[in-house]
Amino acid sequence: MVKQLQIVQQQLNECFYDREEEVEALLIALLSKQHVLFIGPAGTGKSVLSSMLGSIVDGSRYFQHLLTPFSTPEELFGVLSLKDLEQGIYRRNVTNMLPEAHFAFIDEIFKANSAILNSLLTLINERVYYNNGVPIPSPLLTIVGSSNEYIEEGEGLEALFDRFLLRYEVDYIRNEDSFISMLKDQNEKNVTKISLEELYEHQQQVANIDVSDGILKMIAKIRQALKDEGIRPSDRRFKQSLSILRAKAYLAGRTEVIREDLAIMANVLWETSDQKSTAKEIIHEIAFDTVDAFIHRTTAEFETIMLTAQTTLLHRTPIARTELSQLLMQGKSLFMEVQNMNRQIPNRPELQSLKTEMHKQLLRITSDVIGF
């Protein structure tokens, strides 16, 4: 049955270049009945990807809206009923509005003002909308929020930020080949639909995914390591993260959570943007073995150096040659780390592959610097 979702995942990956993590996040949010936040500059495809919620699940109700600082409750929750208002009753007509939606995409969600914030928080957290004081259960399963920027301290939006269990930074296409493929692509892609009833069945299967005591002990180890760095996610966030782990395992076609699944918690267990990289490093050290963690760290750092070098070559500023030389030295330093690790542990072919690829890229950048 999970093959159906894996096909949807593959099709979405074909539609959105260099967005594999975000596509996975969207599907995991659907399976776990959690909410996901995409943060990044305009033009990165956040809105288009998020709007796929409206077409993936057949038979569902979908709501989409762009907030501004001047947005009113009517835009999300419906207008006041004039008939009831004549009798002094402040009841809104919620037909086809957010309280009746199964899925929703709220663009620029941090533009939410005090007039709509309390109702939005209750709806997101409790799946209940209070209409004239009367609680109305909402069928809401997942909200995708997006923003061009993080919240600022003192804006009063911390509670709203906390409601999104999954948080992803979305940047422009990083891989050059993917960027060129995106420019060439003129074909309209179709994505297979699943029914709302099928989604409910998938969600029931997700709830049955096993989380072993060994995995729970690793989560406790992550919690302590984060605490040692001054990062203290709430117990509620740790508890809710189990649904994310189960959904990730299910989407991969497994019946139990494995150690590597813990890596996704790097998008869950941080509270402020400056904690993000530290949390990721801690979680990856535990989620992967020593060599895998080393490869992940080194690969990420080396890719950053190479991308920065490419940008420097394009701009050709007066100090570009000096900057390129410094970047080249940083790249060579990382290469030496990989070479030393490969000597210590020669039976790991992925270390040899990484060393070979890094050597090729360093030769290319060296040639560019010489010919600059």
TrEMBL record:
All residue ranges annotated as the ATPase RavA-like AAA lid domain in the record: 215-283
Domain of life (superkingdom): Bacteria
Xref: SUPFAM superfamilies: P-loop containing nucleoside triphosphate hydrolases
Domain MoxR span(s) in chain numbering: 4-184
Alphabetical list of CDD domains matching this protein: AAA
Gene3D superfamilies hit by this protein: P-loop containing nucleotide triphosphate hydrolases
Pfam short name (any one): AAA_lid_8
PANTHER family: ATPASE RAVA
Record protein name field: AAA family ATPase
